[in-house]
Amino acid sequence: MSKEYETVIGLEVHVELATKTKIFCGCSTAFGGAPNTHSCPVCSGMPGSLPVLNKQVVEYAMAVGLAANCEINRNCKFDRKNYFYPDNPQNYQISQLYEPICRNGWIEIEKKDGEKKKIRIHEIHMEEDAGKLVHDTWSDTSYVDFNRSGVPLIEIVSEPDMRDADEVIAYLEQLRMIAQYIGASDCKLQEGSMRADVNLSVREKGSESLGTRTETKNLSSFRAISHMIDGERARQIDLLESGQPVVQETRHWNEDKETSYAMRSKENAQDYRYFPDPDLPPVHISDEWLQRVKDSLPELQPQKRQRYIDAYGLPAYDASILTGSKRLADLFEETVALGANPKKVSNWLMVETLRLVKEKSMDPQDIRFSAKHLADLIQMAEDGTVNNQVAKDVFEKIFTDDIDPVQYVKENGLASVNDAGALEEAVRKALQNNPNVVQQYKEGKTKVIGFLVGQVMKEMKGKANPAKVNELIGKLIQEY
Amino acid sequence: MAEKITDETIDYVSILAKLKPSPEEKIQARKDMQQMLDYIDKLNDLDTSGVEPMSHLFPLNNVFREDTVTNGDDRENMLRNAPEEKDGQYVVPITIE
Amino acid sequence: MRKTGMTATELSAAIRRGEIRVADAVKQALAEIREKDGEIHAFLTVDEEGALRKAEEIQKKIDAGELTGPLAGVPIAVKDNICTKGLRTTCASRILENFVPTYQAEAADRLEKAGMVIIGKTNMDEFAMGSTTETSAFGPTQNPAAPGHVPGGSSGGSCAAVASGMVPLALGSDTGGSIRQPSSFCGVTGMKPTYGTVSRYGLIAYGSSLDQIGPVAGNVADCAALLDVIAAYDEKDSTSMKRDRYGFSDALKKDVKGMKIGIPKEYFGDGLAKDVKDRILEAAELLKNAGAQVEECHLGLIDYAIPTYYVIACAEASSNLERFDGVKYGYRAADYEDLDDMYKKSRSEGFGPEVKRRIMLGSFVLSSGYYDAYYLKALRVKALIKEAFDRVFSEYDMILAPAAPDTAPRMGSSLEDPLKMYLSDIYTVSVNLCGLPGITIPVGKDRNGLPVGMQLIGNRCEEAKLLQAAYTCECLQKENGKEQMA
């Protein structure tokens, strides 16, 4: 009979910061430049070049640390992590080992069943990203591009406090919200601006000691993380059940094959020879500076969510969804600020917007349309200028092209026809042409009114107000 | 007592330092490193308990740059000294198996 | 034409008065190099064309009254570990044999802005690792003041270039004595400024916490003038310092009255050659007679300076030199099986034995299990050594010391025993560990006619005091020499 196992998971999450320039030089961090067009002597490791720290990196790291309830290390330092790899131009990475900027924090996650749990954060440190390698297996060569080399990262290291994939994903979502709310990062897994390494071990249920853990890298979606956790848990349990030891090692996740493999290299001892970087003086964080960053922290997601419930009377579920993306929350507040009804705004965002986001497999952060256009559309739907179906169609145009709905409806003649004469004419025509249906209605099959409304809408080219059509049919049908 | 430097030590350090000493160089390296470490051992005569390691000399801190882009495209210059280059990239032996 | 014996500041004054053209000064330096450097080998690269072109540009600016500085128009040599845009910079290493920087070191930039003409790049110990300039991959430099002897190192080329009169000034760099010791061996004046005074941007790093660029000159006034040119805060170097005062040439006053000069008795014990000791103490006597308060003092911990220095310098060097891997610039081995083999072959073939020795030692002291015992231990001892200097400076204005235990050794006699070579750095390395300024000035010759130098060590940011004392000593020696002639 097999034993019961518990999975123990800790995460190392790399978050790329949204600074304009790299951590140690004035090169742009913009995506998409031709190879090596955002590189200079510093981030290409030229001899004699020296690093100078980007202040914004420290401020973002501090802000994320504060939001994650960390202690801020008032005297933090940078260390060199030495290892040879072509994407690492100096062959050492400037990072923080001995005196990281934040320590001992926690964030609260909410599990699927609504239970809340604290995940402790061991530390947060600042470091530089590596360059990019592109491989050409035909010629057995790799190409090196330093555009990403030196892009600032923070690494958030959790304690081994998570027990399953759901907790891991809830934790990642919390981290992502913190970084997005602060504006420290857009945290897109697909684009690599948020990356997670998963440390996982298993132990018998009830055991206090930790099992041997593996570290799995290269996880670029929540789905991959979920699969990987299940796979690695099963792999380790299989090993233990068959009496084999789990080897402490780094594993690489292959998302296509949904398997992991050990990364072993005889050429590289895992001995990074960390030592304080003599090129960078320590960072001293004064009380005043710390207070300034504290004061400038924006309202974070848990507070915002509560406020939406209290101030706008939104259901808790809706408030969670809306505040789950900073972009969505911003849109909500901006639209409401323009005078739109909060519940209506919430409805448009929760239903139509998220439907389109899902259809287009987008990140909500990438929603482009403006609050003004949504507010105008809501207004037009409210005052009957357009009917619901037209409003939905117009919204799609707003979503994709951010068109001005007032102008668009006018130019395309989509306004509802409220002319009583024209409407009555159309209703009478429909009643006249469908005596059988009228008969059915009179016999009590009132549901057939839908067909009649459809006929009228067709006649009116969709521009009639369905409620008015309904009302009019009810009034006139007895005459036939 | 100084650390005993063995062939394994030299092999290990060579991996770290990415060097490939010849057999003769290894023998010499072992001798040199042993001699230096024996000498460095002198530091152990000194009681340094309670002394903070001094990584930075002067009370200089908080040297920052503002987050402003100052560098443009300088690719041509960056690659001018590259031993092998293709399409604006450095070329190396393939890094994956 | 520059008259023999003309100093750099005199030459510039003559140029600015229109008596000498910059191009003629440059041509003369080039002619001297052609004549002498075959023998001496102070230069690795001579930029004849560039220097002549620059001379014309500078002449125009001088004529237009745009360049009025005290060294405008003066030719200068630059140590080959200082990046010069468009001019080969090798660190005297095979691994950088063909490296042409596309950026300029801040110090070199300041030379050009002051209207000085970079004539060429000088020989050195490979990556500044050595005390004789014999570890250069491109052959050693001869000591112009003592043929058959080394010029010292690692800035041997810069000191030899000035000592031989090929150029009036040169830039060196000093990580553990690399300006002060060869200045002593060659009979020139050289200074290592307080850490952070001259930008390290573009100086190819050996030991980042120790490296400092400094002037090499024929006399104290030229040394101060050159320091004035290169000393400045630089935002590209995070360890650069905003000094309260610059204007080092203002310190050139013949006056040492009331100055308290300490002579650490540990520096004048058995290890010091008798002639060296005698010359230095004679110079000290001159200062004393001129009103300085010169007395023996206790410094302490000097036996720990060398092991501390080599642990820290080699650890930093092992990391600093990782970037030389055959990927982005520099030497790449011709044949290799894969990436790892490419790294190892390129580095093994590109670096010389002394560099590899230090990289190996540095990698070891940082490696897992040894970091605390060696590296952190050295950082703790460094703190104690700094305290020892602080104690002396709480009582004295400066320390008077040798720059080396003896005069220049014969060529080929030093590399046999690396430890013995390291031990000869005993008087210079502490200054780097503590970031202090130090200056070497010539104080005569030993019985074989080899130059002897004296080192003055000051407290942090007290270059002015050192220059004042050095200048006074230089004046007193001159007067003394005239008296003896008479």
From TrEMBL, chain A:
It holds the Pfam family GatB_Yqey. Its EC number is 6.3.5.-. It comes from the Bacteria. One of its GO terms (molecular function) is ATP binding. It catalyses: L-aspartyl-tRNA(Asn) + L-glutamine + ATP + H2O = L-asparaginyl-tRNA(Asn) + L-glutamate + ADP + phosphate + 2 H(+); L-glutamyl-tRNA(Gln) + L-glutamine + ATP + H2O = L-glutaminyl-tRNA(Gln) + L-glutamate + ADP + phosphate + H(+). InterPro entries: Asn/Gln-tRNA_amidoTrfase_suB/E, Asn/Gln-tRNA_Trfase_suB/E_cat, Asn/Gln_amidotransferase, Asn/Gln_tRNA_amidoTrase-B-like, GatB, GatB_C_1, GatB_Yqey_C_2, Gln-tRNA_amidoTrfase_suB_CS. The keyword DNA repair does not apply. It is an enzyme of class 6 (ligase). Keywords: ATP-binding, Ligase, Nucleotide-binding, Protein biosynthesis, Transferase. Residues 330-477 form the Asn/Gln amidotransferase domain. SMART domains: GatB_Yqey (SM00845). GO terms for biological process: glutaminyl-tRNAGln biosynthesis via transamidation; translation. NCBIfam families: gatB (TIGR00133), PRK05477.1-2 (NF004012), PRK05477.1-4 (NF004014). Belongs to the GatB/GatE family. GatB subfamily. Allows the formation of correctly charged Asn-tRNA(Asn) or Gln-tRNA(Gln) through the transamidation of misacylated Asp-tRNA(Asn) or Glu-tRNA(Gln) in organisms which lack either or both of asparaginyl-tRNA or glutaminyl-tRNA synthetases. The reaction takes place in the presence of glutamine and ATP through an activated phospho-Asp-tRNA(Asn) or phospho-Glu-tRNA(Gln). Heterotrimer of A, B and C subunits. This is Aspartyl/glutamyl-tRNA(Asn/Gln) amidotransferase subunit B. It comes from Bilifractor porci.
Automatic annotation (TrEMBL), chain B:
Coiled coil: none annotated. It holds the Pfam family GatC. Signal peptide: none annotated. NCBIfam families: gatC. Gene3D superfamilies: Glu-tRNAGln amidotransferase C subunit, N-terminal domain (1.10.20.60). Allows the formation of correctly charged Asn-tRNA(Asn) or Gln-tRNA(Gln) through the transamidation of misacylated Asp-tRNA(Asn) or Glu-tRNA(Gln) in organisms which lack either or both of asparaginyl-tRNA or glutaminyl-tRNA synthetases. The reaction takes place in the presence of glutamine and ATP through an activated phospho-Asp-tRNA(Asn) or phospho-Glu-tRNA(Gln). This is Aspartyl/glutamyl-tRNA(Asn/Gln) amidotransferase subunit C. Belongs to the GatC family. GO terms for molecular function: ATP binding; glutaminyl-tRNA synthase (glutamine-hydrolyzing) activity; transferase activity. It comes from Bilifractor porci. Keywords: ATP-binding, Ligase, Nucleotide-binding, Protein biosynthesis, Transferase. It catalyses: L-glutamyl-tRNA(Gln) + L-glutamine + ATP + H2O = L-glutaminyl-tRNA(Gln) + L-glutamate + ADP + phosphate + H(+); L-aspartyl-tRNA(Asn) + L-glutamine + ATP + H2O = L-asparaginyl-tRNA(Asn) + L-glutamate + ADP + phosphate + 2 H(+). It comes from the Bacteria. Its EC number is 6.3.5.-. Heterotrimer of A, B and C subunits. One of its GO terms (biological process) is glutaminyl-tRNAGln biosynthesis via transamidation.
From TrEMBL, chain C:
GO terms for molecular function: ATP binding; glutaminyl-tRNA synthase (glutamine-hydrolyzing) activity; transferase activity. It catalyses: L-glutamyl-tRNA(Gln) + L-glutamine + ATP + H2O = L-glutaminyl-tRNA(Gln) + L-glutamate + ADP + phosphate + H(+). Pfam families: Amidase (PF01425). Allows the formation of correctly charged Gln-tRNA(Gln) through the transamidation of misacylated Glu-tRNA(Gln) in organisms which lack glutaminyl-tRNA synthetase. The reaction takes place in the presence of glutamine and ATP through an activated gamma-phospho-Glu-tRNA(Gln). Keywords: ATP-binding, Ligase, Nucleotide-binding, Protein biosynthesis, Transferase. Its EC number is 6.3.5.7. Residues 25-467 form the Amidase domain. Residues 132-154 are annotated as: Disordered. Belongs to the amidase family. GatA subfamily. Heterotrimer of A, B and C subunits. Residues 132-144 have a biased composition (Polar residues). It is an enzyme of class 6 (ligase). It comes from Bilifractor porci. This is Glutamyl-tRNA(Gln) amidotransferase subunit A. The active site is at K79, S154, S178. InterPro entries: Amidase (IPR000120), Amidase_dom (IPR023631), AS_sf (IPR036928), GatA (IPR004412). GO terms for cellular component: glutamyl-tRNA(Gln) amidotransferase complex. It comes from the Bacteria. Gene3D superfamilies: Amidase signature (AS) domain (3.90.1300.10). The keyword Plastid does not apply. One of its GO terms (biological process) is translation. The lineage of its organism: Bacteria, Bacillati, Bacillota, Clostridia, Lachnospirales.
